[in-house]
Amino acid sequence: MLLDIDRVISTDKQDSISSNVLAPYSYLAQLAGNNNNMRYRFLVAFNMRFFKIDNTQVLSEIGDIIAIFHNASLLIDDIEDSSELRRGHPCAHTKYGVPLTINSGNLMYFVALQRAITALPNLWLELQEQKGIGYGQSGTDLTVVNPSVIECKTNRILVDEMLNLHQGQGLDIYWRDSLHEIMENLPTIEEYLSMVMNKTGGLFRLSVKLLALFSPSPLQVETLIPLANLLGIIYQIRDDYLNLIDERYFGMKGVAGEDLIEGKLSLPVLHCLLHNEEKSALHYVLLDLKTSEDRKNDPDSIAKAILFIKESGSLKFTYDLLQEYVSKALQMLGSFPEPDDACKLREIVVSFSNVMEP
């Protein structure tokens, strides 16, 4: 058998990615989500309200890139949380193994990055030929901006947000896995919100920053980042709340109180610990039941812990904070020029507050 080693070593161009290597990602990506494609809806609504980009291909490409980043992060997140179900189905790592799933998730981060720094500048070049479309961050005519600038800006945006994501996720993991050691020095609510802004807010900020590259509007992207940050925080607070009270959520996750089973410091859990130092049903679940498997096998203790969180007022605190921040987001939205009370973005923000009271 003759080996054509010269052919092998003569190129640094990668072969197409094997479907076997992509299998964990492909499996997760085809599962229907439980949030009605919220991130793409947010992208479209933010564009309608602020950026006015009249090109469906641009929106679709940015939406696809963000979806790849999001789904890849879920592969890793499910491993880090020892989750068994995602979107009501077995997690990818339970089907394909942890090593291949980690590799698939990491690979798709780079696939998304490569696609972004290739496709977005190419799209920008196509739009350069169309008159009347400006460059959002500088307000200059498209013809005076080199497309390599778009590539550099895109790369910087994505790398910055991946750093934010991993910093936030890392803190979330550290607080969970070091709870015994940090019980005397728990994070504050403000520190928790900062973590969430990094971990969850990034995909909201990505929408804003990438849209700004193509926008004919002179609006400065920096003025929109606080709103995107707040929406990311609202989204996570809502998720923390529903994790403990919503039976539909239990169906998608397979268990009630998944955050408790994981030992995670969600907002209601953290608030409850900060305001109840004495031994309680919550302390028992988090400190005496040593592993997520122990907690999963003791649903009665989980139910008692959830009841304690409710009776302590921490669910009410979380609900009230959610409503307060939704109101703040609506005020921020209305403070921009040409407010539109009927805009889609406003509808999305209002929908975040539509949860049952504790």
Are there runs of 5+ residues with pLDDT below 50, and where? 133-144
Return the structural class: mainly alpha
- Beta fraction: under 5%
H and E order = HHHHEEHHHHHHHHHHHHHHH
CATH architecture field: Orthogonal Bundle
Give the total of beta strands. 2
- Strand arrangement across the biggest beta sheet: 1-2
Mean pLDDT: 89
Oligomer: single chain
Count helical runs.
19
**CATH fold-level label:** Farnesyl Diphosphate Synthase
Amino- and carboxy-terminal Cα gap: 71 Å
Count of individual domains: 1
Family: Belongs to the FPP/GGPP synthase family.
InterPro entries: Isoprenoid_synthase_dom_sf (IPR008949), Polyprenyl_synt (IPR000092), Polyprenyl_synt_CS (IPR033749)
Keywords: Magnesium, Metal-binding, Transferase
Pfam families: polyprenyl_synt
